[in-house]
């Protein structure tokens, strides 16, 4: 009996480890795709991997089928217009502001990524919602294209990016029309991970 229990516990731990490793791998892949799309201004990919746009898509699919095609087209165009209208290069929490963090000449590395329970979600008490948390180090070799933070131009910075499960794009509602297992939610700068360009 003890042997059986040991085997059962070991097997459960192994399955959990494999599932977690698989989740981290897919989350990393989604984040890399999102960042590369930002560097290329590939809005189609950004649209498909962004939790805000895909939440709206999920809700459209729950609406009347007769209006679906037109609503999907309008949704895409509205967010594309918003994406193109965002100006400046300041680090902020505005929708699509992440496009300033990854100019085409920047280089980045994902230095860590983990999948964990979303403790801040309102649905977390009755439904297991998982998030992926990643630390991304970005270098800006060109002062002219580097983003600004606190009115200073960044030379190197570390950011914390959050991705959510594609199945949970709408809280409490699972959606089968989402194209990715993980969707980009937001990215924030780490105050202690910034190197600035020297004042000119």
Distance between the termini: 73 Å
Structural shape: globular
| Share of residues in helices | 25-40%
Q: What does the radius of gyration come to?
A: 20 Å
Please summarize the sheet with the most strands. 5 strands, antiparallel
Word description of this protein:
By secondary structure, the protein is an alpha+beta fold. Helices cover 39% and strands 26% of the residues. The chain has four helices and five strands. Strands 1, 2, 3, 4 and 5 form a five-stranded antiparallel beta sheet that branches. The relative contact order is 0.16. About 10% of the residues have low confidence.
Primary descriptors:
alpha+beta, 200 residues, five-stranded antiparallel sheet
Explain briefly what this protein structure is.
Helix content is 39%, strand content 26%. The protein has 200 residues and is α+β, with helices and mostly antiparallel strands.
Q: Can you lay out the helices and strands and say which pair or pack?
A:
Layout: H1 2-40, H2 43-49, H3 51-61, H4 65-85, E1 107-117, E2 130-139, E3 148-149, E4 152-165, E5 182-196
Antiparallel strand pairs: 1-2, 2-4, 3-4, 4-5
Helix pairs in contact: 1-2, 3-4
């Amino acid at each position: 009996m003890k042997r059986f229990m040991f085997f059962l516990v070991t097997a459960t731990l192994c399955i959990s480890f494999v599932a977690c490793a698989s989740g981290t791998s897919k989350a990393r892949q989604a984040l890399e795709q999102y960042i590369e799309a930002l560097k290329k201004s590939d809005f189609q990919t950004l649209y498909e991997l962004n939790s805000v746009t895909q939440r709206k898509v999920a809700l459209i699919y729950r609406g009347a089928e007769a209006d679906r095609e037109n609503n999907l087209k309008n949704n895409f165009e509205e967010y594309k217009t918003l994406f193109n209208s965002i100006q400046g290069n300041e680090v902020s929490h505005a929708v699509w502001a992440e496009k300033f963090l990854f100019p085409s000449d920047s280089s980045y590395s994902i230095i860590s990524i983990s999948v964990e329970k979303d403790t801040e979600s309102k649905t977390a008490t009755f439904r297991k919602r998982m998030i992926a948390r990643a630390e991304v180090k970005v270098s800006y070799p060109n002062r002219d294209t580097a983003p600004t933070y606190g009115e200073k131009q960044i030379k190197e910075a570390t950011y914390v990016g959050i991705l959510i499960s594609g199945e949970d794009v709408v809280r409490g509602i699972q959606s089968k029309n989402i194209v990715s297992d993980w969707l980009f939610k937001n990215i924030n700068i780490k105050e202690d991970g910034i190197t600035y360009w020297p004042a000119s």
